[in-house]
Design brief:
mainly alpha; about 10% strand; 2 strands; about 120 residues; two-stranded antiparallel ribbon
């Protein structure tokens, strides 16, 4: 616990030293109007505060619990399955087309007399 206090005091001292050494450094800042000779420390401090205020709504906003996320996913999945079921008509009867014999079937790999030449990189003659 005292380490936190020591760390905080060291951090405050570091910021004070940084501010003290940079008081002479000034810059011009444009924010719809040119502010001249603004100390760099104030520019950094204002930028930090602006970042804090911008992130506050995201930090304090309502977060979804794990159960809410799972319920939302289940709802999306149910809608997706429902749309799949309605878009594809169900098959009610079997086709009476004759089955192909094994002689009429197309072979899975078509080999030609020049296939070994193509594999080796030679052109067919």
């Amino acid at each position: 616990m005292p380490f936190r206090l020591i760390f905080t005091l060291l951090l405050v001292a570091l910021v004070a030293v940084f501010t003290g050494f940079n008081l002479d450094n000034k810059c011009n800042v444009w924010l719809f109007h040119t502010f001249q000779d603004v100390p760099v420390c104030f520019t950094i401090l204002i930028s930090l505060l602006a970042g804090v205020f911008i992130t506050l709504p995201f930090t304090l906003g309502k977060r979804m619990t794990k159960e809410e996320r799972e319920a939302k996913r289940a709802e999306k999945k149910a809608k997706k399955n429902e749309s799949k079921n309605t878009s594809v008509p169900a098959v009610t009867s079997v086709s009476s087309a004759p089955e192909q014999s094994s002689a009429d079937a197309v072979p899975a790999t078509l080999e030609t007399e020049h296939s070994s030449d193509l594999i080796s990189g030679e052109s067919p003659k």
